[in-house]
Amino acid sequence: MSRKAWFIGSDMIIGAVAVKDAKTDEYDNEATITFTLFNSATKQEIPDAVDLPMEYEADSNGEYYGTLPSAVTATLVKGENYFILITITGINFTLVLREERKADYYP
């Protein structure tokens, strides 16, 4: 069973998969991708979780991954909501994705 949560005290892998160029519809393996974590209630950035990079996964079709460190998730409060903004910048496009999750301990 999969749960959508920010796991307190755990490193979390953040991914963007199948990133494609908006004009050519081809996989973009040279995009610049960063992510920032926010407190949903206050809309404030979480310290040390601002503009964290995602790196291209070699020999993939537009797959990028980054790590939300355990030192950051250890500061989250169980039951509170947080959202991540992922900013993808390619040659012909910029896209911002948002996902909200509740903080919890890993089961």
Describe the structure.
The chain is elongated. The chain has a seven-stranded mixed β-sheet with strand order 1-7-6-3-4-5-2. Helix content is 4%, strand content 43%. The chain has a single domain (5-104), classed as Macroglobulin (MG2) domain (Immunoglobulin-like). It is mostly beta strands and 107 residues long. A hairpin with a 7-residue loop joins strand 4 (52-56) and strand 5 (64-68).
List strands and helices in order, with pairings.
Elements: E1 5-7, E2 12-16, E3 32-39, E4 52-56, E5 64-68, H1 70-73, E6 81-89, E7 94-104
Parallel strand pairs: 1-7
Antiparallel strand pairs: 2-5, 3-4, 3-6, 4-5, 6-7
Give the terminus-to-terminus CA distance. 11 Å
In the CATH hierarchy, the architecture is Sandwich
- The number of strands is 7
What can be said about the biggest beta sheet? 7 strands, mixed
- Mind telling me the C-alpha Rg? 14 Å
Gross morphology is: elongated
Order of helices and strands: EEEEEHEE
Q: What is the averaged pLDDT score? A: 94
How many alpha or pi helices?
A: 1
Instruction: Please state the structural category.
Output: mainly beta
What CATH calls the topology is Immunoglobulin-like
